[in-house]
Amino acid sequence: MLVAEGESLPYDDIFAQADNLGARIAEQGLLRKGDRAALMLSSSKDWLCAFIALCRLGVTVVLVPEGLDARMRDRMLADAGCAVMVDAAFLDDLPEQGAAMPGEIETAPDDLVLIAFTSGSTGMPKGVMLDQFGVTTGLRNMLLAGALLSMMERERGDGAIADMPRQMPSQPCTLLHAPFSHVSGYAQALLAMAVGGKLVVAPWANATQIAGLVAEHAVRSLSGGNVAAVAELLDLVERRAANLSTLATVNSHGARLSGTFRRRLRQFLPQVKIASGYGLTETNGAIAVSIDAGGEGAGLCHLLPGVEAKAVDADGNDLPDGAAGELCLRGAMLMRGYCGISDLPRGAWFPSGDLGICDDAGRSVRILGRVKNAVQGLERPVAIEEIEQIFEKEHGISEAFACISSNAIRPTVALFLIADTVEDGRLSRTTDMVRIALGQAWQVQTRLVEDVPRTRSGKVDRAALASTLSETAW
Questions:
Q1: Quick check: 138 and 188 in contact, CB under 8 A?
Q2: CB 190 within 8 A of CB 223
Q3: How many Å apart are CA 93 and CA 24, to the nearest integer?
Q4: Is domain 2-106 given the CATH code 3.40.190.150 in the classification?
């Protein structure tokens, strides 16, 4: 069952409507196998029907993020080589009925299925080319991730997930707080259809709306919810303005969770476990999972079957277990390359851009942060996220956000601290400790703030944060 934009529809009806849409498109000769079509609809049953119809026609679906300005959108569509834009106007212009869906379209493992765009955190968003082999492997990984999370929780024996087989209703319900155009969005939709789960889609809902949907549909899992949205849910529970007793898991999608957030979660939603996954657009979703780990930055994520990982130094040399370096990944789930930029041969290693440590002969990884945000020139690279965690352990500091500035005489790690109360002496001692650890080449400066700029998805906007830096402001 799909619930989106006030409509509820069984998956059988979704597939029937998708067949009818595919027949109408084929009858008009608008698209054929191998064409690239931009899917530009809101996260609704129309999006899902169009997605299924295009895939069954052998069309490569270009996922266009919602809310883009026209200039950025046109640039991305040009990079992807789109032939047609499937939007509301496209659907309105089709005849109401088609004769019949064409026969089965023959596909090969190397056929492109999707082009999804990166977030653009390193510049312009890049079009990630995903083929049949990679997409189906990514879906298999998601199914394995769910099984692995259940096994991990059963070993602990004391969590909501461990009790799920006894408590679970006939159709488990997930609330998706991410658009279908995002890798976590379309992957969750495919997973729900594969296992027959109920999927409630509300990508831009606020905390009050999310709480209402959780209560109405007895939601057990919140997927794609950014940390800021979940923090607002905790505020509602603290004020007794929401009942989230059915909620069992929150998928943080690898986001770093502060100690304050985790303490509040344990206090107000003790039955909820954090299910964390590590993955990228380039990996077709999650490739490693953990339960209630990683929030403090030291949790281990267990790699899924068929995924290989290694850490390399700045020169590309392999590092031993326990050494921090850039994570490189390999497996069938990987992309084919970036549109118009580069190809990734099957079996090649993909440099993720993430700083991490491999353990257990490469079967587990610790994600430390981004390589480009790391302090270099030390015995090992230090992610700014690691520095943030040190400050968040200080009493009174709820969140810490760091960025690196090279505008000063010496490179500087600037920390923006959100705090209720903080002792100047303790803060000075922590700052001095970090300064000594980084060495004389680095400065460490702190500033108390009420909030920080965030992206639409709720993540801290480090580029905007860095743009506020000036020598006179500290």
A1: no
A2: no
A3: 10
A4: no
- Using CA atoms of 146, 149, 153, 159 in order, give the dihedral in degrees to the nearest 10: -60
Task: Mention every residue, 6+ apart, whose C-beta is less than 8 A from residue 2.
Answer: 8, 9, 10, 11, 14, 45, 48, 189, 192, 198, 199, 201
427 closest CA partner among 412, 439, 417, 442: 417
What fold is seen in the domain 133-373? Rossmann fold (3.40.50)
Structure-block tokens of residue 416? 């923006």
Q: Give the start-to-end residue ranges of the domains of the chain.
A: 2-106, 133-373, 376-473
- Whether 2-106 and 133-373 share one fold: the answer is yes
Q: Using one digit for the tens of pLDDT, what is the confidence trace for 55-69?
A: 999 999 999 877 778
The contacts of residue 10 (CB under 8 Å, 6+ apart) are 1, 2
Instruction: Give yes or no for a contact between 93 and 30, defined as CB atoms under 8 angstroms apart.
Output: no
- pLDDT at site 201: 92
* pLDDT at residue number 291: 63
| pLDDT of amino acid 330 | 93
Task: Please provide the distance, in angstroms rounded to a whole number, between the alpha carbons at the two ends of the chain.
Answer: 54
The CATH superfamily assigned to 376-473 is: ANL, C-terminal domain (3.30.300.30)
Q: State the Rg of the chain over Cα.
A: 23
Please tell me the distance from the alpha carbon of residue 371 to that of residue 307, in angstroms, as a whole number.
21
